[in-house]
Amino acid sequence: MLKVEHITKYYGDFKAVDDLSFEVKEGEIFGLLGVNGAGKTTTFRMIMGLLEIDQGKITLDGKPIDYSVTDKIGFLTEERSLLTKLTVQEQALFFGALKGMSNKQIIKRLDELLERFSIAEYKHKKIKELSKGNQQKVQFIMAILNHPQLLILDEPFSGLDPFNIELFKEEILKLSEAGSMIIFSSHRMDHVELFCKKLVILVNGKSVISGYIKDIKHDYRKKNIRIKGNVSKEELLKIGGVLDVIEYADEVEVKIESEQIVDKVFDYVKKKKHITKFVVEEPSLNEIFVAKVGESYEK
């Protein structure tokens, strides 16, 4: 288990991370989210042991993270971090050696992953000769080359098309099923909802939302109602507790301030003809993120 306990980090007088705590268990995919400058990268670097912690502590299976355990960690950075003049195999041999792997282990694992990601023909190509998408694949392969016990993924789908996102997704889920602890960060809330059951949202280095996504959605009072049929936006907006009505091609989305408003909207809808859909939905994670981050910045 990875335990982050009340960590704080200063850069001079600036507090980049403020009393942050969370846990990631074996096989869990955990979301660490926030806008740019929220403290995510600083947190990643403290977990990796690249930055000293000013207060608090971080442990992996009860032990402080130092060079004795970094071989068990994989990290995919948001920025390209490959040695572009090396071939893919040379990059793997260099990176794998840093993680304590033998050349035989590295080549075997590399061949498996290159085949899985359909880029086996690039094994002896220089990284600078590859497309951006294939460089991203290689960078991901380097992050998981050592079968990491803890894997940190910072914007792993950046620049990928839908087909390759699926490839990455399958591999991430395989790692999770094999017991890897995974910390996943993305600005795409739909990607976060694909994987994560638990998350923390940071604003100015401080947690503003944390816990299981299903509980966060349930506790968030505002709900959405999807209606397909003969309804009027103007009439819906006159119902007390209706916050907004968004019209789509073949249905409307009614945003309400709480679950108590559902009956009011239903009373209106049941008087109408040709209603083929009336569905109450939890808000999307993106809606909650925008609302909570906005509230925090306004205070």
Q: Can you walk through the features of this model?
A:
This protein has 299 residues and is of the alpha/beta class. The chain is built from ten helices and 14 strands. It has two domains: 2-217, P-loop containing nucleotide triphosphate hydrolases (Rossmann fold), CATH 3.40.50; 221-281, Alpha-Beta Plaits. A six-stranded mixed beta sheet has the order 6-7-8-3-9-10, with helices on both faces. A hairpin with a 2-residue loop joins β9 and β10.
Mean pLDDT: 91
Low-confidence spans: pLDDT under 50, at least 5 residues?
none
Beta-strand fraction estimate = 25-35%
Give the tally of β-strands.
14
H/E element string? EEEHEEEHHHEHEHEEHEHEEHEH
The CATH class name of the largest domain reads Alpha Beta
Give, in spatial order, the strands making up the sheet with the most strands.
Answer: 6-7-8-3-9-10
Count of DSSP helices? 10
What share of residues is helical? 25-40%
> Which class best fits the helix and strand makeup?
alpha/beta
**Cα gyration radius (Å):** 23 Å
Distance between the amino and carboxyl termini: 35 Å
Could you say what the CATH topology of the largest domain is called? Rossmann fold
Q: Structurally, how many domains make up the residues?
A: 2
Topology of this protein?
Layout: E1 2-11, E2 14-24, E3 29-34, H1 40-47, E4 55-60, E5 63-64, E6 73-76, H2 88-98, H3 103-116, H4 132-144, E7 150-154, H5 162-177, E8 181-185, H6 189-195, E9 198-203, E10 206-212, H7 213-219, E11 223-228, H8 233-237, E12 242-247, E13 252-256, H9 262-269, E14 277-281, H10 285-298
Parallel strand pairs: 3-8, 3-9, 6-7, 7-8
Antiparallel strand pairs: 1-2, 1-4, 4-5, 9-10, 11-13, 11-14, 12-13
